[in-house]
Amino acid sequence: MSKYRDDQIKQFAEIFKALSNPNRLRMFLHLVTCCVPGTVGSFDAEDGVSACVGDLGRDLDIVPSTVSHHIKELHRAGLIRMERRGQKIECWVDPVILRGLARFFDKPLTG
Amino acid sequence: MSKYRDDQIKQFAEIFKALSNPNRLRMFLHLVTCCVPGTVGSFDAEDGVSACVGDLGRDLDIVPSTVSHHIKELHRAGLIRMERRGQKIECWVDPVILRGLARFFDKPLTG
DNA sequence: TCGATATTTCGACATATATCGAAATATATA
DNA sequence: TATATATTTCGATATATGTCGAAATATCGA
Fold first, then answer.
1. Which of A69, B35, B58, B81 has its CA 20 to 30 A from that of B41?
2. B34, B7, B12: which is closest to B100 by C-alpha?
3. CA distances for B69 relative to B1, B17, B66, angstroms
4. Plot region of A78 (φ>0 → left; ψ -120 to 50 → alpha; else → beta)
5. Rounded-to-integer distance, Cα B23 and Cα B100, Å
6. What is the pLDDT of residue A43?
7. What per-residue confidence (pLDDT) applies to B108?
């Protein structure tokens, strides 16, 4: 019936759950638009391909602990990667997951 | 920052919430794979482009009232369309929404 | 080492969600 | 009209979620 295995379906459900909160979705879009996906492996914070936790919470009207919680959810779902750089913790979108999502919705249309 | 308006972000969040439950995601995939999106307007249940509520609940180990609830959620999110045909109520994926989702994840990669 | 900045952890609480079972509604058919 | 099939509505319940504030942890710079 479906071309996805049961564990893959559960993983996609987790991903969609992570994107189901408007604030988390805004953070994700912030990262998607500020970063340059497709450049897998060539990650470099100085090139502006990542954002720190403080950046992501700006303009969102939620306290830092809530921002942190949301970022943890995005990370748990596998959507983003994180790395400490001094005081800040930089986040960026996992390009592989993003590609998987594009195919998830694209395939039924083109294939 | 983001190319999406606030109300669009909320709408996408609603869509992802609808897909965040494994059983609902299975129903959605059932419809996506059994139907032929892209054929907007040429809907015809006899051609197998839709499935009834009973079909969608099969192999899911949940009672009909729960299936009905999930389908209502998919419909509320705008993912599927419904129409009564005799005793049964046929469901099919809204091709426009599906296309919007494909672009949502595809654009940051190609644009 | 002390203070400032950045982030996380923890506990609390109000709200939302997934599921069930029983009862109601709609449609078809004998 | 009576019965069977398909689906929805309603109320209950257990669990999950979003958010906050306070306190803890990590890092940098004076």
1. B58
2. B12
3. 36, 14, 5
4. left
5. 22
6. 43
7. 61
**Chain A residues with CB-CB distance to B3 below 8 A:** 33
Residue ranges and CATH numbers for the domains of chain B are 7-110 (1.10.10.10)
Residue of A30, A43, A29 lying closest to A101 (CA atoms): A29
Give the model confidence (pLDDT) of B20-40 as tens digits: 999 999 999 999 988 654 444
* Pairwise CA distance, residues A17 & A10, whole Å: 10
Across the A:B interface, residue pairs with CB atoms under 8 Å apart total 92
In degrees, rounded to 5, the angle at the alpha carbon of residue B9 between the alpha carbons of residues A48 and A33 is 15
* A106 neighbourhood in chain B, CB within 8 Å: 102, 105-106
Q: B92 with B43: CB under 8 angstroms? A: yes
Distance CA B92, CA B75 (A): 10
B45 touches chain A (CB under 8 A): no
Q: Is B1 on the interface with A (CB under 8 A)?
A: yes
B32 to chain A: closest CA residue: A108
